[in-house]
Amino acid sequence: MSFWQFLVQNRRQVLDLTGEHLWLVGWSILLAVAIGIPLGILITRVPRLNKLVLGSANIIQTIPSLALFGFLLPAPWIGERADRLAILALMLYALLPLIRNTYTGIRGVDPAVVEAGRGMGMTDRQLLMQVELPLALGVILAGVRVATVLCIGLATIAAAIGAGGLGEFIFRGLAMVNNQVILAGAVPAALLAIFADWGLGLLERRLTPQ
User: Are the C-beta atoms of 164 and 20 separated by less than 8 Å?
Assistant: First the structure.
């Protein structure tokens, strides 16, 4: 049986697992954005926290994904359901590009523009919301783009703990030594990553100040 025949015959399951994959990635990115961007803003305002926050995010990135899933299993409430555990782990992996790009984007705003805003009597909050964040938006979206592509790839590992997603086909194919089944998980995951990268890249270019 060819790869395309397998896809056609199992299209319902492919669609269901793709939906699970998108659900895991979507929640992970939403949580990562809700935590990572405020942390990136925080370290621009409190520089002494820079090493602590970025260092912690860097350390998380060095932990192998399966090992991180294993570390989180004993966690109360989180470890009780595989999908919660997978979302938390993916969110942790997505934090570094979001924190780093938010920090870099805001710090990269022209100091003359910031001083001009202060000269007009703008408060720090007004400067952040009306000057720095709009000018840094392109760089922040680049971080969201990297984090999303990263999560789409890593979400395939979540199937190892029973969280579902396209990794189900990959692990099943490895157990069966069947390339068609492996490709049924790998190809849709790759296409999701390519589409997300293209779509967010287009949005990033539109929102980057010229």
Answer: yes
Percent with pLDDT over 90 in the chain:
50
Q: Please give the single-letter amino acid code of residue 25.
A: V
- Rounded mean pLDDT, 10-15: 88
Phi, psi values for residue 161, rounded to 5°? -110, 10
pLDDT at 93: 93
Helix (H) or strand (E) holding 154: helix 133-154
d(C-alpha 4, C-alpha 17), whole Å: 17
Phi and psi, residue 44, nearest 5°: -80, -25
For residue 150, what are the contacts with CB-CB under 8 A and spacing of at least 6?
A: 93, 94, 97
Report the C-alpha gap between 108 and 139 in whole angstroms: 9
> Which of 206, 189, 106 shows the shortest CA–CA distance to 150?
189
**Structure letter (DSSP) for residue 42:** H
